[in-house]
Design goal:
The protein is α/β, with parallel strands linked by helices. It has nine helices and eight strands. Strands 4-5-6-7-8 form a five-stranded mixed sheet. The radius of gyration is 22 Å and the shape is elongated.
């Protein structure tokens, strides 16, 4: 039984898949370098060093056999961070590359169906956070937002906010995963803080007009809210309560 460790990156996973083929490994488990392998006491261990050339060859092979859409689905699955997601992706790549016909739409295959379900969940989360991000302007002009999504969706929403706020400096920080994406009016880069910024940290550095903007937004939300037509069950379906603590309008008593 083979236990493989990699650096946790997307290209690292693609390199891992390349080496599975290269060394004809029968993989029992996949873990990240910073994870403990105590649960895998038995079996040969193999450490993968990310190689962009190997990763690109795997990606090109998937595109040729299954199409670009499948690469995006696999990437979404990777960002879901579910348990043993690497093993699922490995099995699917082996299935796609080993088939003589295109099988990416074979919903009768257990792994293909599971991939579609995961992709749908990640895509729903990505879509929601295009609307649920709330920026606060800092003293230096930077617009900052804190989020805590179920999945690692920052890589999926960066282009949306880059295009929508192309003339502004902004930062979206995922407090659950302790990293963010920063836009300097030119390109988006990944950033890490020495500590996870709290809402109070953000407000302490906020622009003097931010409290006014906050109040204006709450007043607007209150004015367009028609109590007689309130349907909380439907509202929660579209805006689950787990998102509310980062939405300033939710500090109002909705009743």
């Amino acid at each position: 039984m083979m236990i493989i460790a990699y650096d946790g990156s997307w290209y690292g996973l693609m390199t891992l898949i390349f080496e599975v083929y290269e060394y004809r490994m029968d993989v029992h488990a996949i873990c990240r370098n910073n994870e403990t392998t105590q649960q895998h006491l038995f079996g040969e261990k193999h450490l993968v060093y990310t190689d962009s050339n190997k990763a690109e060859r795997v990606l090109k092979g998937i595109v040729l056999k299954a199409g670009k859409d499948v690469v995006q689905e696999l990437y979404c699955a990777y960002l879901s961070e579910q348990n043993d997601i690497e093993l699922l992706i490995l099995r699917l790549v082996q299935y796609y590359l080993g088939s003589k016909v295109k099988v990416s739409a074979n919903y009768g295959h257990e792994d293909v169906l599971k991939l579609k379900q995961i992709t749908k969940s990640v895509s729903r989360e990505r879509h929601r956070f295009k609307a649920f991000v709330r920026f606060r302007q800092m003293e230096d002009g930077l617009y900052m937002a804190r989020i805590e999504p179920d999945f690692n969706i920052l890589p999926l929403i960066s282009s949306h906010f880059k295009n929508r706020y192309a003339d502004q400096l902004w930062l979206i920080y995922d407090v659950k995963r302790d990293y963010g994406i920063y836009y300097d009016k030119s390109e988006v880069t990944e950033v890490h803080f020495d500590f996870i910024p709290s809402d109070q940290n953000v407000m302490d550095k906020a622009h003097e007009n931010e409290l006014l903007y906050d109040d204006l937004w709450k007043r607007y939300f209150q004015s367009v809210n028609i109590k007689e037509r309130k349907n909380m069950k439907l509202h929660i379906q579209h805006v689950p309560k787990r998102y509310w603590k980062y939405l300033n309008e939710k500090s109002l008593v909705l009743g």
